[in-house]
Amino acid sequence: MTTKLLALTLIGIAITALFLIYSPHSTSLFVGTHTMYNFSTNPTTGVINVTTANGQTEYCKLCHYHIWEELYSNPSSPHYDLSCETCHRFNGTGIKFAVINSTGAHPGIQTHAAYVPSCLDCHGGNGVWVVNRFGKLVHAPPAKAFNVTQTVNNHNVTVISSIPYFAAHKAMVAYFEKKGDENLACLMCHTNISKHMVFKYQYDLSYTLYYYTFTSFTPNGTRYANITINPPSNFNGMHEFIPLNKINCSSCHENIYLGLINGTHAPIYNAWNTTNLWGNPRYHALATSVTTLNVSWINNSYCDECHNLYRYAINNPTANTTYNLYPAAIEINSTKVHCAEKVSCLTCHGNGTPYDPYTVIATYGWLPGGGGGSTLYIAIGHENMLNQTANYSRMYHGDVCMACHEAAVHAATSCKWCHEGFIGFDIQSEPSGQDTII
Amino acid sequence: MSNIAKVILLTIVIFAVGMLVMPQTASLFAGQHWWYNISGNGNQVPCQKCHADVYEELKDSYHKNMGCACHRANLSITYAEVKNGKITDYQPGKQAHAATTVACMLCHQINASLNSSMPGPFAGTFNITAFGVKSNYRYSNLTFTGMCSAHNSFVANAIKNNTLRDSTEACVACHMKVNITINFHVYKWINISTDHVILGYYSLTGLNESYINVTSDSFGYTNITEVKP
């Protein structure tokens, strides 16, 4: 026992002695602080690689792995073909980045390694061509209507939005623009970041008419729509991009989606069966009644029928021919918007617009109705009503029109709606569809 | 003579010989009276003797040809030095004796030759003043503004941290093979509220315009941990 103890003690002393001799006499504060990365920049793609213990790897990925993983999580996602450097070292702005190449080390000017790009750096103007991570030249298309030069004051703060009035979402982009980060507006729609929106809007409109002339008009209150969208992403979703044609309009505008089903946002029901005054099936009808409506038909394509007429015309050549959509798309501002045009019923059906109802009512040969006079009178009276509607705020146009044209009701309506003296309506706005004659 | 007596006698003899042959005294550590020649160009003291780990890291890096000179490069510091190979020209250190810890920016700031005996390429271009941070080193000027640098906040807050000199924590994090755990506090939620605003008559449209206006925003955050290998 004593011999064993002595032997162990001697071995322990020997190990300690060897450790003291061969171990470093001091250690640096952090292991690795004197081992620098050797950068290897791909001259075509600009991707920077470094060598680690596990071999060559993308440089940015070392610290931003979650973003890298998210960016490349979906092969069909926009920007899947781009590298971190494509956006964060984009060379189209005049910003100079630090570079190490065969001629030495060159400092950056406005930045060192990377910058936080504005989406419009690539998607502004006419768009740009960039080399993706596979070495292929690809085009970043312009975000029409938002691709405008901003007006700035002498403090370099955007104070006036140049985004045209007809661009839906102008207010949102302009809001974040003024806050100094318009990217947030892009992220709202084009990424899977979580969103919570509270829409406040007019609710419960009452008005009365006497032969197409407004005799009262009373908005009764406001309503709130609370929309919450959680992302499927395991990170924050900001680098998981969604292409324009995959953005589900209804996810953010759920109250409008419900309003469509309930018959208050647009004439979604085919009240006049297969034909109407225009001589065609109702353009924006999907079903004859709520019981025959397949809600999956309320999709982006349906939204396009009014809010992006140009895109709808391109994607639906038969409808384009039937309804002669393309000239109308040019006449309104449909060709100039990124995703959606801000419209009301009067954009296409107002006095002098592409689908002014005056023309069809006046020429259709309708027989005079009871108490109202001639067909011409109805046409003139109808146009007069449109002109009066135009004097009310745009937010009320749809409700005024839908009070009569709310298809599910219209089909069962008696002649008095158009042809008798007084008529009054109380119509709620989205998402409910109640329309009461008062 | 018994065996025990023989062993005792042999031991005495060995001790006696040892007393004669061995030095009269032994220094506490062998070699402590062998002096390095520090009178030549540069510093001949083998730093790696004590800093072998640093030496092993350094010998394969960009800075391998610089040796340990970074730690005696600060022109505002007088280090102990034997000049011109003459011990009579000995210059004692003032602010430091052998070496100082060093910030990367000493040699990589704008016009580093004003402050460093071995200036390197400028590697700043960070706008730290936007974060209310001051540094002894020049990160930006009217030309090299750093206004767009994605890592401005990182560098500025590294300056505030006193673990390493100035912003060296940030330099090390990106440029050195150091294992790092990073806790990112990032957006997870965007919340907005809107109102419906009536603008009034607009001649371009001929309508009484209104629009949905964003009235407020707020953000929700999440914490993400990145581990740099």
Write structural notes for this entry.
- The complex is a heterodimer of chains A (438) and B (229).
- Chain A has 438 residues and is an alpha+beta fold.
- Chain A contains 18 helices and 13 strands.
- Chain A has three domains: 97 residues, no CATH class; 48 residues, no CATH class; 244 residues, no CATH class.
- Chain A is elongated.
- In chain A, 37% of the residues are buried.
- Chain B has 229 residues and is of the alpha+beta class.
- Helices cover 21% and strands 21% of the residues of chain B.
- Chain B contains five helices and four strands.
- Classes of the chains: A alpha+beta (438), B alpha+beta (229).
Describe the strand arrangement of the main beta sheet of chain B, using strand numbers: 1-2
User: How are the strands of the biggest sheet of chain A laid out side by side?
Assistant: 11-10-12-13
List how many beta strands of chain A DSSP finds: 13
Number of helices of chain B: 5
Oligomeric state, counting identical vs distinct chains:
heterodimer
Give the largest interface: A-B, 75 and 73 residues
Question: How does the overall form of chain A come out from the CA principal axes?
Answer: elongated
Order of helices and strands of chain B: HHEEHHHEE
Strand content bin of chain B? 15-25%
What profile does the largest beta sheet of chain B have? 2 strands, antiparallel
Q: Name the overall outline of chain B.
A: elongated
Strand content of chain A: 15-25%
User: Roughly what is the average pLDDT of chain B, rounded to an integer?
Assistant: 89
Radius of gyration of chain A: 32 Å
Question: What key attributes describe this structure?
Answer:
A: alpha+beta, 3 domains, four-stranded antiparallel beta sheet, three-stranded antiparallel beta sheet, 13 strands, elongated, B: 229 residues, alpha+beta, two-stranded antiparallel sheet, 4 strands
